[in-house]
Amino acid sequence: MHRSLPAIAALALLSTTALAQQTSDTPSDLTVLPPISEEYQPALTPWGEPDFRGVWPIDHLNSRTPLERDPQYGERIFLSDAEFAEQAERVQTLGARRENEDSADQLGQGHWTELGSPNRRTSFIVSPANGRLPAKTAEGERRSDLMRSSWRQGQDFDIWTDFDSWDRCITRGLPASMLPMMYNNGIRIFQAPGLVAIQLEMIHETRIIPTDGSAGVATAIDNLMGVSRGAWEDENTLVVTTDNFAPGPSATNIVTTGSPPANDTPVSTEARLVERFHMTGPDTIIYEMTWEDPVIFTAPWSVRLDWQRDDEYQFFEYACHEGNVQIRNYITASRAARAAGE
Hints:
The chain is of the alpha+beta class. Helix content is 14%, strand content 18%. The protein is built from 5 helices and 10 strands; from the N terminus they run H-E-H-H-E-H-E-E-E-E-E-E-E-E-H.
């Protein structure tokens, strides 16, 4: 876990245009995202590719902005001035929890959650226009009902398959691994000729993405994180397409603020993730993703995030659950409760 709790940044520190439009400045139209600038030309690596190397943590985005938009905002992408002021006050109150716990000689969520900076976004989902996940297909609902996870309420535990892949410290899956949550939000990009590697602090997975134009692999070869291929588009954009997902307990929304409350989104072999990393300045990337899984969802859905470079950010151990005993403890406690008639 990354243990240095980020301070609630003053809005004046968010100096780039793209970020300012999502924080202190009032957008001229609350229903329209600003266009992505194509003017910036990043430096090149010694082998001639755009240089995206560095640390791009998304901890600053863990600030009460939900994945799914509250229906009260309709198709508004941004909060009004008054709504943003309320948001900033809530974030400031939450940011004081650690200090309050220290004063009371207590440990709680203030020592666990790494809170970011308030921003104007009403949701991270930008398509569909209502900012919400599309409805599931009938097959998606059927598969969702079969899913098991410690994040689902009222569930008994009796075998290891009653737990999802994150419970078992295997993977958080995609696209969830690219979305902010309450801790371990580090993302680091490495590059070599014809290759990009994206290291994730959560579970310490590393996505290996060839950019040399090599062909993909047979569909019979799959992975819980899928199989990725990348290509450089224009001079400042990396496009990554990921398919060959292994069906199973990976989920798209687990413990991402404002997502559905349970791990209830399965992944099919037809799923495809398309990501665009637009470098808009030396220290800013606009990240876009589109998730399409026609077996599970009735339509694709898309997310847009603003990344900030922070090469001082440190990755810490992701211990998951100490001693790897929690699966057994859940099962033992659940069996005992059932035996006692609880």
